[in-house]
Amino acid sequence: MATAVTVPAPAPDEVREWARRVGALSPVLAVIALLLVPGSGGAQGGTGGTGTVADAASGLLVLICLVRVLRGGARPLTRTAAVVLGLPVLGICLAAITSNDPAASLPGVARYVQIFVLVPGAVLLLLRDRRDFAVVAWSLVGLALLQGAVGVGQYLTGTGASYMGEDIRAVGTFGPTDVMGMATVVSYGLIVVTGIALGSGPGRTRTAALVCAGLLFLPLVLSFSRGAWIATVLACGIQLLLSGPRRAALVALAAGALGVVLVGGLGIGSAMVKERVASITQVAAAPDQSVTDRYTMWAAAGRMWSAEPVTGVGLKGFPQYRDSHASLALSSGSDTAGAGAAFARQPLLSPHNMYLLVLSEQGLFGLLALTGSWLALLVGALRRRRLGADCALVATGLLAWQLIDFFYADIGGPSTVLMSVVLGLAAWWALAEVRRA
Fold first, then answer.
1. 2, 8, 10, 204, 397 from 5: Cα distances, Å
2. Residues 158, 167 contacting (CB under 8 angstroms)
3. Rounded CA separation 137/191 (Å)
4. Is 1 among the domain residues?
5. 274 CB neighbour count, 10 Å cutoff
6. Domain count, the chain
7. Is residue 54 within 8 Å of residue 40, measured between CB atoms?
8. Residue pair 181/38 in contact by the 8 Å Cβ criterion
């Protein structure tokens, strides 16, 4: 006679602990979940505001964290954490004060402080231990899976953003004006599960991470985002190398085989994907108009910096000074359509390179302050590798992805607030008191 197997129910104490943990992290989880709400407007480049519900939730997150700190009465941050997170404020404030139009720079001050100081600091303070880290990390994966599923559906049904005359570009709920939104979210999720799979031992956690990695690969490909592809490949490569050369070689072979099966064997967007990949190597020989526009704006940002090398032209100054520093090769804007939106011409308001944007608007002082904070987080995450491989690989991978992606993108659009949550997650691992696993 077969014996019935019963699965033990969770203990009441475990359920209550789980509920308390989720409740304590609910301000952070709300920001992540609200990124599923479709945006209503176009993405603003540079320091432009988006006015999304996720941005409003991030403000509430900061407020709740402030109330908890005041009620606690203890010093919230260590001296090192306060210096690292507060360093960007120096360049931001100096650029605003020395701007030719300080009043116009004030919205830029608020946006930069929100994204690079307040929200990361609030996330750092709300996380208490590795379990909290895991809850937020898996929430990023959940968001990536949902956005990726929407994106794949857009490709299959022809309801995505316009790409090469067809409405097939996977953009999730972000719309055609923020084509990098879904690619960014999916990339974050892929980096997280890669770090978990490489840093965890055999078991359900590693299996779940590997399954999620396979599911997220397809929407990333269908985003047709060259910058996200490059950043993801390099960041995952860094994670692999940190986990060991032998494992890196095996995983690279498995990932290559998966790519061949999905794109080559199943023919999923194979022709367009091959053309998009080939265009990466043609950016110098025969660039398309989007690449030409980007080169032209990079050159314009360099000329702005040469005019004001120390403090830049001021926050939100790039659109104002763009035409006087750009060549005639710059087009009037980029075409957007599809994904439920009518055709529109989107103006080019930023250089699509975070380092050049900061250099042009905040000068060398601002760039050193901001990148110094990011590099300090990266060094801190690397130094704590022995405290836990999974968290270390996740934090290091996310920081590496962001620093690489900043060569092709800057802040702007609804997904920007998620970047601040990611920075806070990495900051907790790099700066908080963490015990050895």
1. 9, 10, 16, 19, 41
2. yes
3. 10
4. no
5. 12
6. 1
7. no
8. no
Distance CA 19, CA 10 (A): 12
- Beta carbons within 8 Å of 302's beta carbon, 6+ residues apart: 356, 359, 360
Q: Which strands form 334-338's sheet, in the order they lie side by side?
A: 166-169, 161-163, 334-338, 341-346
Query: For residue 5, is it within any domain?
Result: no
> Looking at the domain assignment, is residue 62 inside a domain?
yes
Q: Could you report how far apart the first and last alpha carbons of the chain are, in Å?
A: 44
- d(C-alpha 119, C-alpha 223), whole Å: 27
Rounded CA-CA distance 222/168 in Å is: 8
CB contact set of 127 (below 8 Å; sequence gap of 6+) = 25, 133, 136, 424, 425, 428, 432
Other CB atoms within 10 Å distance of the CB of residue 66: 15
Residue-level pLDDT at 6: 45
Which residues form the domain of 320?
A: 21-37+45-431
Distances (CA, A) of 226 to 184, 269, 407, 437: 11, 15, 12, 37
Q: Are 337 and 344 in contact (CB under 8 A)?
A: yes
Quick check: is 13 in a domain?
no
Pairing of strands 161-163, 166-169: antiparallel
Task: Answer for the pair 193, 122: CB distance below 8 angstroms, yes or no.
Answer: no
Residue 54: how many CB atoms within 10 A of its CB?
Answer: 22
Dihedral class, residue 346 (left if φ above 0, else alpha if ψ from -120 to 50, else beta): beta
pLDDT of residue 39: 67
List C-alpha distances in Å: 100 to 3, 62, 258, 314, 317: 80, 31, 53, 7, 9
What residues pair up with 334 in beta bridges, in sequence order? 346
Q: Which two tokens stand for residue 3?
A: 């014996």
Tokens 């997904």, residue located: 415
**Mean local confidence (pLDDT), 270-275:** 63
**Cβ neighbours of residue 120 closer than 8 Å, sequence gap 6 or more:** 85, 420, 421, 423, 424, 427
Over residues 60-86, the pLDDT tens digits come to 999 999 998 888 766 678 899 999 999
Q: Which amino acid, residue 102? A: P
Q: Which of the two residues, 109 and 273, has the higher pLDDT score?
A: 109
Exposed e or buried b for every residue in 172-202, given b needs 16+ CB within 10 A? bbbbbbbbbbbbbbbbbbbbbbbbbbbbbee
* Main-chain dihedrals φ then ψ at residue 315, nearest 5 degrees: -60, 140
- Contact in structure between 173 and 150 (CB atoms under 8 Å): yes
Q: What is the pLDDT of residues 170-198, one digit of tens each?
A: 999 998 888 899 999 999 999 999 999 98
Instruction: Give the CA diameter of the chain.
Output: 86
